[in-house]
Amino acid sequence: MDQGIDLQQTFIQSLMDLGLSAGVAKTVWMPLPMLLMIIGATVGVLVSVWLERKISAAVQQRVGPEFIGPLGVLAPVADGLKLIFKEDTVPAKADPLLFTLGPVIVVIPVFLSYLIVPFGQNLIVTNVGMGVFVWIALSSVVPIGLLMSGYASNNKYSLLGGLRAAAQSISYEIPLALAVLAIVLMSNSLSTIDIVNQQSGYGILGWNIWRQPIGFVIFWIAALAECERIPFDLPEAEEELVAGYQTEYSGMKFALFYLGSYVNLVLSALMVAILYLGGWELPIPTSLIANWLGVSETNAWLEIVDASLGITMTLLKAYFLVFTAILLRWTVPRVRIDQLLDLGWKFLLPISLVNLLITAALKIAFPGAFGG
Amino acid sequence: MLKFLKQVGDYAKETVQAAKYIGQGLAVTFDHMQRRPVTVQYPYEKLIPSERFRGRIHFEFDKCISCEVCVRVCPIYLPVVDWDFNPATKKKQLRHYSIDFGVCIFCGNCVEYCPTNCLSMTEEYELATYDRHELNYDNVALGRLPYKVTDDPMVTALREFVYLPEGVMSPHDLPKNAQRAGQRPEEILAQDMAQDLAKKETGNKE
């Protein structure tokens, strides 16, 4: 497997050539991908908010935002601006420290999880050996923030919303982790890079979705529940709980929740794309394309094209999943809390366990196809 | 053991069924995405009200004979007819007339029953005010004619659905002389007259 473009090595090497020491060169490099990822995640949120509004409008045969910029693309920017300039109120009887800390604790782990999202062989902030496990661990920090803000608001709706959020996140964490475990079993590694590489080579046929169809469905359902998207949005159900833990929030604190929920959606979609849809891999293997064109796989311009195509493919796959989430929002009604917990504990958990066992059995039986 | 397997089988069947229904639902919402919106961009575009539109009521002061029929047929006796008996002409003389459109339900009974046709319906429907008392129209306000949407240079007038040619769903970008589906009243009339004429001629021959 060729390594493709390695921006980090090139950058550090060129700085060292200028006379800097290796440590300094690495320190100069480090903030760059982080900053890029934060900006990328935020832009991704703006895009998905716009998509949400436009697709929702299309499903309901409306026009949607139209006058704020061409096709209304500036609508989410206007939303953000409004929220920035809004007064930041703290209710009189609320706990001010926890009230402020809540949204922060919700947002930070979500952004932190972008550390392990790869867009190419070397296009990743850090290739942590624990990869997906970091993501699962970080995503279980979020309900603490939700519970915190629900409790600190000193409001019965907020408290109910926070409790529901915690219950939901905890019960869907387990099937999610088990679905990931089946993938990890096949790729023998927790690293997201290794997981994608294990799917590469056969184009669309090599993707994990064919080997883990049940896992894919479980993962996507659990991810939607983690993001509190509509079939499972009861922690913030407007009609019954007055937006749950968000009731007392306004201004930038509310904006953090809003941002966090959409960043989480995009992140989950990216994780599905990486774990099940072959990450940055094209539907047709690159070596095949290189053969057709009659050029070497390590050709410089082919690598650049391949890298940019890889980023596009990852985003395309992720946004396809975001699209299905939005479509699902207007198709499926909200479940009750007991139905939600039933689905999580009595359906997804046993099925994902069985799925894990079957994967393990298949791995022993056909080590070739299931990553021996 | 067999019972357990049956239970598992039933459960699996139900799951497949649920998945099928969700799939069907998704197909419906996905299909709706291809249907175009029929949005009328309201302040810039307006629909032309149909000829039977029951909008704000128009009142002609000079035609009124103060008979108060409009009051009697009104479901809530809303029109206020303020008249004096004129001993010289021995007739009622109308002084003021008013209808409160904040209370009126636009049923059109007064228009229907007015013996001198001094009441009529207009196509005006933009009656919003900041104070509900402004909706109490006196005879001067009732005598004003509404501005036609087709005459307004700021507004693109759009036809309602029934006035569109057959098969056309959107009122946007219609050719100017596009005729609506079906026959117009005058066409039906002309046809009837031609038929009558033909009947008469055959009758004469016999």
Q: Any overview of this molecule?
A:
- Chain A has helices at 7-17, 22-29, 31-59, 75-85, 96-112, 131-139, 142-152, 156-187, 192-199, 208-211, 213-227, 238-241, 251-275, 286-293, 300-329, 337-365.
- With 372 residues, chain A is an all-alpha fold.
- The longest helix of chain A is centred in the middle third of the chain and has 32 residues, at 156-187.
- In chain A, 43% of the residues are buried.
- Chain B has 206 residues and is of the alpha+beta class.
- Chain B has five helices and seven strands; from the N terminus they run αββαββαββαβα.
- In chain B, strands 3-4-6 form a three-stranded antiparallel beta sheet. A two-stranded parallel sheet of chain B has the order 1-7.
- The N and C termini of chain B lie far apart (94 Å).
- The model of chain B has no long low-confidence stretch (mean pLDDT 89).
Class by SSE composition of chain B: alpha+beta
| Mean pLDDT score of chain A | 84
How much is the radius of gyration of chain B in Å?
29 Å
Biggest interface pair, counts: A-B, 15 and 14 residues
Q: What oligomeric assembly is this protein in?
A: heterodimer
Helix and strand run of chain B:
HEEHEEHEEHEH
Strand portion of chain A: under 5%
Determine the mean pLDDT of chain B: 89
The computed structural class of chain A is mainly alpha
Helix content of chain B: 25-40%
- What's the total count of β strands of chain A? 0
Order of helices and strands of chain A: HHHHHHHHHHHHHHHH
Distance between the termini of chain A: 18 Å
Helical segment tally of chain A? Answer: 16
Keywords:
heterodimer, A: 372 residues, mainly alpha, B: 206 residues, alpha+beta, 3-stranded antiparallel β-sheet, two-stranded parallel ribbon, 32% helix, extended
Helix and strand topology:
The complex is a heterodimer of chains A (372) and B (206).
Chain A: H1 7-17, H2 22-29, H3 31-59, H4 75-85, H5 96-112, H6 131-139, H7 142-152, H8 156-187, H9 192-199, H10 208-211, H11 213-227, H12 238-241, H13 251-275, H14 286-293, H15 300-329, H16 337-365
Chain B: H1 2-32, E1 45-47, E2 57-59, H2 69-73, E3 80-86, E4 91-100, H3 109-113, E5 119-121, E6 136-138, H4 139-142, E7 156-158, H5 185-205
Parallel strand pairs in B: 1-7
Antiparallel strand pairs in B: 2-5, 3-4, 4-6
